[in-house]
Specification:
The chain is an all-alpha fold. The protein has six helices and no strands. The protein has a single domain, classed as Homeodomain-like (Arc Repressor Mutant, subunit A).
């Protein structure tokens, strides 16, 4: 698999991030088997496909959180992170605590 194919896979992922991309759809797009795409993705980028996908979704949500006044739970639910439900719950509880503390503490 060429570097251009890996770049195509990453570009496809970035373009489809809001639509809950999966390995099967990406592999169809580039014309290779899911197993081969997964192994080459990991070999080239140094992290598994699923890890890359989870990290990118979290990064994009963090960026959205900086730009918006939406609640964290709404942003997380828009990410469609069903396999990561415990992480969503943890992040939600952490943000509720942070938001509560922001109102109580003075910056000066």
């Amino acid at each position: 698999m060429s570097i251009q194919t890996i770049e195509t896979m990453v570009t496809w992922l970035e373009s489809n991030m809001t639509e809950n991309p999966c390995l099967a759809d990406m592999s169809k797009f580039v014309g290779y088997s899911p197993y081969y795409c997964s192994s080459k993705f990991h070999e080239t980028l140094g992290i598994p496909f699923k890890t890359y996908l989870k990290r990118r979704k979290l990064c994009l949500t963090a960026q959205d959180l900086k730009k918006t006044k939406k609640e964290l739970l709404i942003l997380l639910s828009s990410m469609v992170l069903h396999p990561m439900r415990p992480l969503q719950d943890h992040l939600y509880m952490s943000m509720v605590t942070v938001q509560d503390n922001i109102g109580k503490k003075s910056l000066f």
